[in-house]
Amino acid sequence: MDVDEYLGRLDADQRAALGRLRNLILEVVPEAIESMRYRMPTYEFKGNPLCAFASRKQHMSLYIHTGLFSKYEDQFRGLSMGKECLRFRRLDDLPLDTIRQLLLEAAWVERA
Predict the structure, then answer these.
(1) Fewer CB within 10 Å, N side or C side of the chain?
(2) Residue 38 is part of which domain span?
(3) 18 φ, ψ to 5°?
(4) Cα→Cα distances 27→38, 57, 100, 104, Å
(5) Which positions ≥6 away from 15 have C-beta within 8 Å?
């Protein structure tokens, strides 16, 4: 299964939300390599995991595989969080400007 097939199996709301998140990731880090790992869309940059997202029964998740996550933690207050995971029901719940900045910084660190 590829990412298009994955998104195609979701309900319309989740497909739209995760499709927009996918576009944001690829816009911010166009060199990211998109694949399916652990049954979810995953993005690598310079051979290192960058992020992944998934649809769950009750929510969607964004996994940010970078040591920078804790730097932005205060901007994620009010969201359900794991160590490097944000859980949300609607894309509007995510601070997309913060996600954009986090991805930019993660890519910059990898480029250096």
Answers:
(1) C
(2) 3-111
(3) -75, -30
(4) 23, 27, 9, 10
(5) 7, 8
Q: At what angle do helices 12-28 and 96-111 cross, to 10 degrees?
A: 40
67: CB partners within 8 A, 6+ apart: none
Instruction: Provide the pLDDT confidence category of residue 112 given band limits of 50, 70 and 90.
Output: low
Residue pLDDT, tens place only, 10-45: 999 999 999 999 999 999 999 999 999 999 999 999
- Three-point CA angle 68, 69, 72, nearest 5°: 95
Under 8 Å CB-to-CB from 23, ≥6 apart: which residues?
none
